[in-house]
Design goal:
Metallo-beta-lactamase, Chain A; alpha/beta; globular; 6-stranded mixed β-sheet; hydrolase; 7-stranded mixed β-sheet
Length: about 250
C-alpha cells in the first residue's frame, strides 16, 4: 500500500492511501486546488479518488471538501459530525454510525472513536485485499484501550505527535488555548504518542508516520527521539525493527 501525506499540521491535513490504482483520502484539510496539485505530483489522478474519510469537522481537516463535489466522491464522517460540514452535496454524504465496515474499491475501512473537542470525531483502520493494515489516529487528547485494540497488528501507523507540554506551557498562547491543547480532548503529546506506540509496535517492520506536529510547540527531532527512546525500552531499534518518519 502506498502512503502519501499530502499535508500535515495545523495549516491542513490530507493523507492519500493507494492500492491497485484505487485511492482514498483521509481528511481534506487544504484547498481543493492544492489537493489536486499534490495528488498529481505523487502520480494520482484526482478522479481515481474513490472516497474521502473525515476524522472531524475542524477546518484544517475539511477545507478542501469541495473536491468531492467536483469529482463526485462519497464523503464519510461521523453521523453527528455532519452538523458542522456544509460544503458537500447531499448525494455524496455518507454518515457513519456506531459500528460498520465499509467496502471501498480495493479497500476495507473501519473506524473508532477518539477524544477531541469535535462532535463525533473518528480514527480509521484501513485494509487492502491482501490484509495489509493501516491505522490513522490524528487529533485526540488521549489513546484509550478501545483505540489501542482497534489499531493493533497494523503494518503502518499514522499518528499525531502534536506537542511537547513544556513548550506549550512556555508559549504565548492564551491560557484557554493551552488548557485545550493539553486536555483529554486536545492533542497528543510526544510522550503520549510514544507510549501508545510502545503498546502497539511488535517489531515486525512496521512503518510509523508521526504527523500533525505543532510548528510552535514541538520539534521534529524531539518527537522522533521521544518515540525511539520509548521503543528502545522493548529492545526495538529504528531501521531494524521498525521504520519511522516525522512528517
Amino acid at each position: 500500500m502506498k502512503v502519501d501525506i499530502l499535508a500535515s499540521g495545523s495549516s491542513g491535513n490530507c493523507i492519500a492511501l493507494t492500492t491497485n490504482e484505487t485511492t482514498i483520502l483521509i481528511d481534506a484539510g487544504i484547498a481543493k486546488t492544492k489537493i489536486e496539485k499534490r495528488l498529481l505530483e505523487v502520480g494520482i489522478t484526482p478522479n481515481n479518488v474513490k472516497a474521502i474519510f473525515v476524522t472531524h469537522a475542524h477546518s484544517d481537516h475539511i477545507k478542501g471538501l469541495p473536491l468531492a463535489n467536483k469529482y463526485k466522491i462519497p464523503v464519510y464522517a461521523g453521523e453527528r459530525e455532519w452538523k458542522n460540514i456544509t460544503t458537500v452535496e447531499d448525494e455524496l454524504i455518507r454518515p457513519i454510525g456506531v459500528g460498520g465496515i465499509f467496502g471501498c474499491g480495493q479497500f476495507i475501512v473501519s473506524h473508532f472513536n477518539v477524544h477531541h473537542d469535535a462532535i463525533d470525531p473518528r480514527g480509521y483502520v484501513v485494509w487492502n485485499l491482501d490484509n495489509f493494515k493501516v491505522s490513522i489516529c490524528l487529533d485526540t487528547g488521549l489513546v484509550d484501550k478501545s483505540m489501542l485494540n482497534a489499531m493493533r497488528h497494523s503494518d503502518i501507523y499514522i499518528i499525531e505527535a502534536n506537542h511537547e507540554p513544556r513548550m506549550v506551557a512556555a508559549s504565548d498562547y492564551p491560557n484557554s488555548v493551552k488548557a485545550r491543547i493539553l486536555s483529554h480532548v486536545g492533542h497528543l503529546s510526544n510522550e503520549q504518542t510514544a507510549k501508545a506506540l510502545r503498546e502497539l509496535v511488535v517489531g515486525k517492520g512496521e512503518r510509523i508516520y508521526l504527523t500533525h506536529l505543532s510548528s510552535k510547540n514541538n520539534l521534529p527531532t524531539l518527537a522522533e527521539m521521544t518515540v525511539k527512546r520509548e521503543l528502545l525500552k522493548k529492545g526495538y531499534q529504528a531501521g531494524n525493527h521498525y521504520e519511522l518518519e516525522v512528517v
